[in-house]
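Whiteboard transcription, Tuesday session. T.W. wrote the structure tokens on the left side:
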């Protein structure tokens, strides 16, 4: 009947107006747009760089901000390892930055390259900082995996052994080695089963050296069930 059709038309109109009003409130209202950028976690990363990237969203409706795209752009900054971009209603975009931090000092011409666990250089130094391990590694190719293997071995060493290490290095993920203060070299192989390798090393070091100085010995614990001591060639 006509009355029923009018009622239906009226309901449709009300719903349309409600949806339109909601859409305007969310996308068009001034209070629903990005007005402020808040950046956290920057120490070495220039905050102005992050502000420049995220600031392009000022005035954009909050719901239309592609937070993933903003995060990708911020991660393009060399010293940024990861970042999270979130909306804080009604009008703030929050950018949380996790910076890259030096994990090792890699010898290079003229000093040391300070790199993070991804092999990304975060600085240079004439001398290796005392708090960083010196790691001899070629970062090209699978060098980053090798770097991570060295750091994993070092992290698993007991404090007394870790304190003896003068330098470390690798010829790949399965070729980790360390040189200790007495000049002895330990061949660890991979970063797997390090506690067992440590026990094998202690057993080898307890054996008589047969008048050969430690500086001329390689302790091979890469296969901890069959460890060996060899004269360095």
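and on the right, the sequence the group agreed on:
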């Amino acid at each position: 009947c006509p009355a029923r059709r009018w009622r239906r038309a009226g309901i449709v109109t009300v719903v349309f107006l409600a949806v339109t009003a909601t859409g305007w409130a969310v996308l068009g209202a001034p209070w629903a747009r990005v007005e402020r950028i808040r950046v956290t976690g920057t120490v070495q990363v220039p905050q102005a760089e992050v502000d420049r990237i995220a600031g392009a969203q000022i005035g954009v409706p909050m719901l239309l901000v592609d937070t993933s795209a903003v995060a990708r752009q911020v991660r393009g900054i060399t010293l940024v390892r990861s970042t999270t971009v979130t909306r804080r209603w009604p009008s703030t975009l929050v950018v949380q930055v996790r910076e890259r931090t030096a994990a090792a000092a890699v010898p290079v011409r003229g000093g040391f390259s300070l790199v993070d666990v991804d092999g990304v250089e975060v600085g240079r130094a004439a001398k290796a900082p005392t708090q960083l391990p010196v790691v001899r590694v070629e970062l090209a190719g699978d060098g980053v995996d090798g770097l991570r293997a060295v750091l994993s071995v070092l992290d698993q060493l007991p404090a007394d052994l870790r304190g003896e290490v003068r330098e470390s290095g690798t010829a790949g993920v399965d070729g980790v080695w360390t040189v200790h203060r007495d000049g002895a070299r330990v061949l660890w192989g991979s970063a797997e089963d390090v506690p067992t390798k440590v026990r094998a090393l202690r057993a080898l070091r307890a054996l008589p050296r047969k008048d050969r100085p430690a500086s001329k010995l390689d302790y091979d614990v890469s296969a901890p069930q069959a460890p060996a001591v060899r004269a360095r060639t």
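Someone added at the bottom: The mean pLDDT is 87.
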